[in-house]
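Archive maintenance. Older records in this collection stored only the sequence; we are now back-filling the structure field for every entry so that each record is complete. The fields below show one back-filled record exactly as it appears after the update. Entries are processed alphabetically, and Anti-sigma-YlaC factor YlaD is next in the queue.

ARCHIVE ENTRY
Title: Anti-sigma-YlaC factor YlaD
Organism field: Caldalkalibacillus uzonensis
Length field: 116
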Amino acid sequence: MNHQQSLTEQCAIFRDLYADYQADHVEQETKQWMEEHLYQCGNCQEWITLGGTSQTAGEDQHEPGESFSVQQTSSVHSSSLTKEELKTIRTAKRMLWLGIGLVTALSVWVAFWFYF
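Back-filled structure field:
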């Protein structure tokens, strides 16, 4: 695997995880890897500068035969979801985690109430 293909795969992973990174929903190791990648990758820096959803000119340099290239991933995300829809999805994720937390806390409280 050459360096350009490796960088493309890393960019795809970075961009897939970026929304969770912004919401602080990634592990510390992942966060550190993402920060290192961003420091080294001009294409991802430009991608974030442009809003984190649109293609950049640098992505056109990737080989067309790469099946899961950043170019393909970005076009799917940017064409199928608007910013408002992404915001709604993020809000729904937060509400889901809040609900899970509340159910867990309630379960613990009930367990203590029954057994003590």
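Update note: The CA atoms of residues 79 and 100 lie 31 Å apart. The longest helix spans residues 83-115.
Entry marked complete.
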